[in-house]
Predict the structure of Asparaginase.
Amino acid sequence: MTPGARPGGAIVRVDVLYTGGTFGMADHGAGMSPRSGLGAEIAELVGEFVAETGITVDLRYDELDQVIDSADADAGTAARIAERVRSGRTAGRAHGVIIIHGTDTMAYVGARLAFELWDSAVPIVLTGAQIPLGQPGSDARANLHLALRSLAAQLDPSTSLAFGSGLHPAVRASKRAVDEYAGFMTVRAATPPAAPVTLPATAGGPGGPVGLLTVFPGLHADLLEAALRHYHGGLVLECYGSGTAPMSDPALLAAVRRASERGTPILVITQCDSGAVDLARYQPGRALLEAGAVSGGDMTREAALAKLSYLVERGYSGPQLRRQLTTNLLGELSDPLAAVPIPSAKADIPSRDRSSVV
Ligand code: ASP
């Protein structure tokens, strides 16, 4: 038996929650939209898995009252899914939970679920499809089987995405393809925290809306100001490179400073797929730092948004929030001390293996 695998012949008890997405979509002439009532089709797919693998699955199926195109996910979607998972789990019967979800926001919702369900005793696996179930070339069956296989094999109670050829840690995943079966990539390898963390499970503060804005050449101070006013709970600012933005524009700098003074946290992440934010490296980064921004290290945009919104909704603010944001809680953030300095020549930078695992 491989380490962490369930004993041979064991029954794997799985809860499947269908929330919508291409997996169960059909086009009735107005563009694809999700169908409801997928229970029988899922049971059939699970039956095929049992026949092919010899692994016995005890399935419990559930679906949201309103299945959606995941593009319609809102700031409360992940929390509602987490609530449904928690209530379905009260009997404590399942060895794992599979959430069938649209791919457009799977990484956002998955990252937030990782925080919402951080204390889950069982693995949570999100999956979906690029081509609907029953259509030629559909990847729905293969992805559901991948999710089942991963639950049968793993005991690690973390949240991941099962898609294409592998599993992606939810706090490190991003959708990167609309035209390939491998729709997601693990942007950076998950980095298990040095010590186990404990996060508050219930809402503790007023919070406020939390948002995300990408910096681009020509970013107008009015846009940043509007974002910081609306998302007064906190803003993830997706900057260039090591955490730079056009901070020589005094209006942009003033907007960041004013928001910080009002108590709105600004979490700086990078648009790059490799390396981390280092606000002290360049003058624009230092300007952001001095205006009150916090470094988001090497977090993905999805994980940064999930972490900031989760912590703000749990009542974290000020130095306590800053401490949590800069601490690796679930593998979403590399230890800054372990960051590798830039070698002197580009040719020295080893190419990263981004292939996924299972
Ligand atoms: N628009 C779809 C969704 O996210 C795309 C998909 O599932 O692949 O629900």
In short: The chain is about 30% helix and 20% strand. Residues 20-22, 69-71, 102-104, 128, 130 surround aspartic acid (CB under 6 Å). Confidence is low (pLDDT under 50) at residues 344-358.
